[in-house]
Amino acid sequence: MRLYLASTSPARLATLRAVGIDPIAIAPGVDEEAAVDAAAAEHPDGLLPAAEMVQLLARLKAEAALDPTVLAAVGLAPAQLDGFILGGDSAFELDGTVFGKPHEPAIARERWLQQRGRSGVLHSGHWLIDHRGGAVRGATGRSTRATVHFADDIEEAEIDAYIATGEPLKVAGAFTIDSKGAGFIDRIEGDPHTVVGLSVPLVRKLVHELGGRYTDLWNR
Q: Model-level pTM?
């Protein structure tokens, strides 16, 4: 049974491969900023809670994978999709402020100076579409969270060296647990895979909820 990953995250792809699932990766091309702004405008305070935001974007990414134009980029047509489509998104929350990817070195450095020695919450959204047989049969999803505790003895020289690798610029919260950033994290409370951006235990549950079997996804 095939899994289609509607995400460009190398960490999500590596996580799935590590647990025996080699998905077909699809770049969904969702305008995330516009989607979040539109959803936030419907909230009384104009702010979209982190858990809602990642779940919204995960759903939009999964649904975008049904677009014929998006599928054409990987040589597929909608009728050829036979399996499950998984969308995912992540965001880091510190002191009630939600942070996505910093993109710029200066922004990443500012965030690291703010979060070292402290704790924040990583939220990961998941949306799974059942497209077995070439048509949508159902969909489900949930978000997960994990608390990240950062070391309090991180030197500025270490922060600068980490930023120079380029790694923190491309990930929510400007850190990773599965690569160079691992040394700066003291401990995780919750599912560690959530910090990578994809909760494997939750994926298993979602597949089960849609009438599938997680072990049928193993193809490595």
A: 0.92
